[in-house]
Amino acid sequence: MTQQNTSPQDDRPKNYLGSTLLFLGIFTTATIVGTFLILGMLTTFNIRWKIGHVWCGIIGWMTKVFCGLTYEIEGLENINAQQPAILLSNHQSAWETLALRYILPPHSVVIKRELLYLPIWGWSLLTLKSIVINRKNQRASLRVLLEKGAEYLNEGLWVLIFPEGTRTAPGEIRKFSIGGAMLAAKTGFPVIPVAHNAGDFWPRYSFFKYPGVIKVKIGPPIPTEGRRATDINADAENWISQAIHSN
User: Fold this and answer.
1) Which CATH number do you get for residue 31?
2) Is the model's pTM score more than 0.90?
3) Disulfide engineering: 71 pairs with which of 39, 162, 183, 214, CB 3.0-4.6 Å?
4) Structural domain includes residue 3
């Protein structure tokens, strides 16, 4: 994955119009879809998931049309929709929080509690069986992750975790938290690593989006049964790090 310059001194031409149209498109549609998801509590999870899935597809289309930004996937054959798994992905921007919901099978996402403070947008995340953690209380957060994660995996849902805990700069990897690997060791469900370079084109803390092709790499399942969480975590972190820094 070739790294682009996404520093505050980024000298690439600013896409004012496209970035503005994308922002307005996300803001408007997120409010509408969020309302539908909240009302959708009267229906089934599958219906709510389909609503969210369609919306993320629409955002992908707007990103392509307004900003000239698309993506390619390598390793999609490693996804078996009939075999739930724990997905560990690096975290560089808001792009993957939307795109992975569209690319991957139905799943629960681990999110920070602060997102629930956003009216409609945050509340709608609860309708999609998100696992809400309080980053200020790591012990309680781990307990919630292990309990709810195991529950959803046994229901047939996947679980998506960003083990770095926050968005990082392109090419940077922060130490992985152990929660996802502990969930894998406890349940025996496989871990599938995911790497991408979204931050090259949709930088963190930046209003501007740049044209290009985001590369998403999905790794082979990492076995977990009978293994220590530290070893599982190291395997996932090493695979993602190598995938990010490979051409």
Assistant:
1) 3.40.1130
2) yes
3) 214
4) no
